[in-house]
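Contributing new records

If you add data, match the layout below exactly. Sequence lines come first and carry their own label; structure lines follow with theirs. Keep one chain per record. Anything else will be rejected by the validation script.
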Amino acid sequence: MPISWLTVLQAVPWSDVIRNAPKVADGAKKLWSTVAGQPAQAPVDAGTPARSRDDRSPEVLQARIDALDATVADLHGQLLASAELIRELAEQNTQMVRRVELNRVRAVRLTWALAGVALVAVAGVIW
């Protein structure tokens, strides 16, 4: 017996979904602003040899290393923000799956109960 979508939607813990929605939305906005607000940087090709003696000076190389360290730290922050958002979405998904499974079990039990009642009603009519 298929379960109607209305039944499934009524069984969703909307209070939990609504309560967690601002956190998820804020996380998504924060992630988007972090990613979209940064200008695209030209990739640094480590395999290309330096073109002049000035490019190989310790100060220039140290500046490039510092810039790369800052980029790595920024990417790490974005990774953590993405992971947190994914974790929150996974928790909400887990809660919804539990509720759907609970409703499926209830529907099966109600189907069996209805079949039993119908059997008793048919037996009562026949006798």
